[in-house]
Amino acid sequence: xxxxxxxxxxxxxxxxxxxxxxxxxxxxxxxxxxxxxxxxxxxxxxxxxxxxxxxxxxxxxxxxxxxxxxxxxxxxxxxxxxxxxxxxxxxxxxxxxxxxxxxxxxxxxxxxxxxxxxxxxxxxxxxxxxxxxxxxxxxxxxxxxxxxxxxxxxxxxxxxxxxxxxxxxxxxxxxxxxxxxxxxxxxxxxxxxxxxxxxxxxxxxxxxxxxxxxxxxxxxxxxxxxxxxxx
Length: 231
Known about the structure:
The protein is elongated. It starts with a helix and ends with a strand. A hairpin with a 4-residue loop joins β7 and β8 (177-192). The chain has one helix at residues 2-19; strands spanning 26-40, 55-72, 75-95, 98-118, 124-145, 148-169, 171-172, 177-192, 202-204, 209-211, 213-230. By secondary structure, the chain is mainly beta.
């Protein structure tokens, strides 16, 4: 009896895992990250080397979504969307009402096609995506020294693209929900258009002009996401 029960449970589990990646199933996969840090100067050596009223804070948000459809057993094709935002604030209290505050933020928005393949019923999967979008950099400065004060701001938006590869493992929490730890590698490219008036781009000392500049990046990432498998 125990043997029959074990075989039945194994059969139901195999069917459950298989059904989640069958052709005709929809997949909604997502991961998010949120971070915040706040620091202030508590002391220096010598004691007057720095103003102990200085403060800095930072926050970051990351959201990744993949919506797809199983065109064949184990094979998903869909659309990937990624959003990241990072903000840093430095507050410099000079005393006597004087201050120098600086805020900078960077946000990116990427969208593009993606494919994902589940290896049989093992739970192992591999994914590739290519996204294109923009990165926005913004800075604000507000200061006051004695009778003088001023504020300024600057904003720049550049085009970018990312080619990503990843692999992970689906841990099924229920019939339609899985936890997905993964590791990936991304190749990014950000292009800055030349702007003679604002000094954006690459300054060519031979011509005395600014030219388009492209910065390429690459790096590893580790994520944990939740996926919904809907028939």
